[in-house]
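Before relying on records like the one below, remember that each one covers exactly one chain. Contacts with other chains, cofactors or solvent are not represented anywhere in the record.
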Amino acid sequence: MPSNKIAFIKRASFSNTNDSVLEALLREFPDHHIEVLDITNLIPNPSLKFRILSHLHAYKEFGRLLVTGREQMNGVGGCQIRTRYYFGTLNSKIQQYLAKDSYRFTFQTQSLFDASIPSTPHFVYTDHAERGCLNFPDFKKSDLFPAAWLDREATIYHNAARVFTMSDIVRRCLIEDYGCSPEKVVSVGVGYNAPPQEDTPRNIDRYANRNILFVGRDWQYKGGPQLVEAFRRVSQIQPEAQLTIVGCSPLLNLRNCNVAGRVPVSQVGHFYKRASVFCLPTRREAFGIPFIEAFTHRLPVVAPRFGAIPEFVRDGETGYLVEPDNTEQLVDRLCDLLNNPRKAEQFGENGYRLVQEKYNWRTVGAKMRENIERVLQSR
């Protein structure tokens, strides 16, 4: 009789996405027991020898990127976990942990480790592939991680029975740049993590408040400086305009600007519901879940045209797309929405309908279950 256990392997919170994915799997496989393994617990107190060796390997393999500041040693997707030494050690510990039991299938989020084990169907859910960075503004081929990591990353995808991606563009990347077969890679989308507020205003006054919202943790990569430059010019045209910054705490001397900083995900919705327009002129974006969250709060969006963003920010329908680093376009589109509350409201409603139809965890979970069951039945 097949096991009714599922191993769910994750790394920390994955920007609060892991909890949502786990809930989706619990909902779609109610007769199964899901065992959660957070890989950060496999090496909780690394020895001095391990720390020294992992740092040496990081500088050996990623030295140029570390020295230039392009990448960090640790942090989200840092260099250390991607080294041959750390990657191999971690994968070995994962296999040792999973060998103690039998599972109907294993499921991992992100492509930073390989949790596949022999004779057990394995599934990966990811928002990003390293070669996809070439779609980012001003990103050069020389900025990619070394070929040794790209080879290790490819093994993660090839060892999986299915790879689920958040976007169509990452699916194409895995097929065209990593040699995955088209039937192996399935774009299932993503849902929102900041829950919508039940009392979100639906009257026109909300869009007439002229409050621009930014939500992001990395001020530089998320385009914070570009937005400040644009907002200074917007303020000259519309002195009543406001800017609210959530997720980070840049030091700014800017009139009508509220820097809220880091807040719990459960409270982010309070800022969405008070906003008139959502703007994130990001320059590095694997997917862009904050845009989806803005749609759940019926907000129009102004966003850069690259990566997965044009898949859901539909120009002139759910918001506006601008060319990356084009301040004039950013100012023009922001002013257009601030000046036209009815248009902002309509764009927000269009985005809300899109989320209800496609970008929600129930839809994502159902697509995953359908493909997982297909693989299990074929075995």
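The chain has two domains: 5-191+360-378, 204-357.
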